[in-house]
């Protein structure tokens, strides 16, 4: 009887792991009408280009975007102040001058900023009533059908710089019109960083539109010689209109012209279906990287919509995921918070799910950009902090320059330490020795060098001259801590020195590893009392707060481990106090981040609860994270709706943390799932050490686990069952079990399957 059950389990497990067998269509966006708001639209993208499909008045609208459309004019003057000067003003109790230099320009001056491209509109009044509007996430295509038979299908090519559309059963007059942003016109005294100033405040001249028969090209001059071009071409035959569009940006030194136009001229020669083929193949490969099957239908659907957005927003060679990525606001204003590169949590959270989700190439688009702007960031570090090494602006432009804003966070001395975690993760999840040698360790080395230079050693303890904890006390002078570093900064510095030591050791640089360990030992311990992790040694987290900055040591840094009794006490107290202070000041991302905090404490009930609140209350109809509570403030006093993406991606990571953890050097299967989750499967989630892990739970019991070693090495697995049988694949060198942990030594490409023997 046991043998029969095991054989059946193998077949079932393999079947569920085949992503093509999953009903991805269950997780599609599907509406009985076209959305009539831009932030509820059907989103398509390829990391560089994006579009939102929605209805504006009588028109079907494609809001077109390109990730590198930026106005890079500086608004902040770093020649007027530096970190030492800020320290002196804080000591004097005079902070208004600091705010005028470091913060006021962010609100008063519209640039630097991400800018929108244009829109295409089709007058659809004659087509009658819309029957369905859907986003097929399996193929990344949007489709609209009308009751009277007309249809639209459209996509943004997964790997090439164009989008395509096809209308069928429509009259010849259903043709695109180019709608250009309202850059021209008088400047307006309106808007805010969260709501967005008027586009006209940028002071651009009106762009030029050229139209000839079946194509339109729009060229928009920007600032300092920057310009961009949007082109659309189409053809009509027998009731069918097929078209393509493209966007190209040009720097001041770029001598090219008509690139978008030429791309369209080339692609319009090919049938729509032929253009679609390679696009669908790319997405098929994307979905085959990993899969998750949850018993909670709300979380299951939200998870796949988040992973779809990751595939749409991150791509090799594209800019990093900004606040809105390739879906800049289409409301006549600048995007919320200028659509900038926010490094005080937004970019970091956005890439969290790429590592365990087995999408390392998507994650690398972030470290690639950080490496690209490394020299610019070093110059900023030297100028503002008067120190060698590397730090990164907490709020940055596409070229890596600082935008300013609340400078406790936009000029924080530990931004680089948090960003360095992505280099560390890229190495740990891939075990790519070349990446370690040429990217990860050099970056960690530079960040650690900066931290050793900016900190001061007194009485054997190393500390920052000024410390802060993101957005706690907002932009008041009290947001600076001059008499004791915050847990946020301490945790990040401890992580950075430890990661640098780990990387140096892996490269046999023992002296350097010892140096970083010595510096880490000089840092103060994390401040904790009966409330758990405090904000700083002199202040508890006394109120509800959206940014879980004092809890960084729990997640994402993993400095505390609930398997250790002393750490467990601190974690329990911290999360209990977080509940006590409540969620009234939380944004949507606070809930999705909290899911990972609870998951690290093996609390599946509360982890799932946070994810359910996020999906139910803080997302638009199209799954976009809107920051505020959209159900009138059930869980938060924030009820506004500025769209940003980090909360979406942190949601997906919360799911991953519930299913698989590896940060401690031990693989843990289903470490934080609710008791009522009886049937769960995940396939090819990636663990640190470059292990691909699959597991299946049936009727509340873990049936089997499969591990594939991508690079070889030893996996340490906390066994999820008391008795088991193993089926070795190729490349298992040895396995030993001690106190419930099995150490399995693999050759490169080796694999093993462990099955519950049902004692």
Written overview of the protein:
55% of the residues are buried. By secondary structure, the chain is α+β, with helices and mostly antiparallel strands. Helices cover 32% and strands 23% of the residues.
The strand order across the widest sheet is 1-8-9-10-11-16-15-14-13
What is the total number of structural domains?
A: 3
| Rounded mean pLDDT score | 95
- Please identify the structural class as seen in this structure: alpha+beta
Instruction: Report the CATH architecture of the largest domain.
Output: Alpha/alpha barrel
Using brief descriptors, characterize the structure shown.
759 residues; alpha+beta; Immunoglobulin-like; Beta-galactosidase, Chain A, domain 5; Glycosyltransferase; 6-stranded antiparallel sheet
Topology of this structure?
Blueprint: H1 2-17, E1 29-31, E2 42-45, E3 49-56, E4 59-66, E5 70-71, H2 83-92, H3 96-102, H4 104-108, E6 113-114, E7 118-123, E8 130-136, E9 141-146, E10 151-156, E11 163-168, E12 177-179, E13 208-212, E14 215-221, E15 227-237, E16 240-250, H5 259-267, H6 272-287, E17 291-293, H7 297-313, E18 341-342, H8 346-351, H9 360-372, H10 374-385, E19 395-396, H11 407-410, H12 415-430, H13 433-454, E20 456-458, E21 461-463, H14 487-506, H15 510-521, E22 528-529, E23 532-533, H16 565-581, H17 588-600, H18 604-617, H19 646-659, E24 660-661, E25 667-669, E26 680-687, E27 691-698, E28 701-709, E29 713-718, E30 724-728, E31 732-738, E32 741-746, E33 751-756
Parallel strand pairs: 25-29
Antiparallel strand pairs: 1-8, 2-3, 3-4, 4-7, 5-6, 7-12, 8-9, 9-10, 10-11, 11-16, 13-14, 14-15, 15-16, 17-26, 18-19, 20-21, 22-23, 24-25, 26-27, 27-28, 28-33, 29-32, 30-33, 31-32
